[in-house]
Amino acid sequence: MNATSLTLVGCGAYARELINWIADATTAGRLPPLTAFLDATPDSLSGFPYTLAYRGRVEDYAPEPGELLVMAIANPDAKRRVAAELKAKGAQFATVIHPSAVIAGSARLGEGVTVCPFALISADAAVGDFVAINAMSSVGHDVQLGAYSTLSAHVDLTGRVAVGEEAFFGTGAKVLPGVKIGERAKVGAGALIMRSVKADAVMYAPPAKQL
User: Fold this and answer.
1) Closest Cα partner for 138 from 123, 147, 17?
2) Contact present, 107 and 126 (Cβ < 8 Å)
3) pLDDT of 152-189, one tens digit each?
4) Domains (ranges, CATH) in the chain?
């Protein structure tokens, strides 16, 4: 497909970040311009300095010639549901990689992946469809990162980590080498994961205390 424009799917906080990162990639000649968004709320960008056209709700979407969609939803379960609905309508999705990100030549990225500034995807890692990798996060060598998962900023998946689909990692979470994270698991901000985590588990770190 010879893409001529991009449209965001969802228009929350992560979408507003992506607006800026896509602009950088467009300036670098890597992506066509971002022109519109899909969302349940037409005034999602009200009060912010962005001038994208409103293309309607997801359920009303019909593909236009030359249009690629950008998945801008952070919630893994919502990503799965919305992606399935749009693909059933014939939608096609872009993979967005910020120019400052470092991607190993042997890494494999699926459809609809978003990679934010200064992120790293290392040798022989496999990143599934619709994964979001936020700023300054790293995906180590030989990592298997399941579809629809989300890495918040400063997450570190070290070598040979295996992550199931629809997992979510809060800011600053770290996973030690070879650990497995089950499907739909949630790892809280700042957590250090040293042992494998079951599907649907919620892992968190204790908050800081005043001395």
Assistant:
1) 123
2) yes
3) 999 999 999 999 999 999 999 999 999 999 999 999 99
4) 5-94 (3.40.50.20), 95-196 (2.160.10.10)
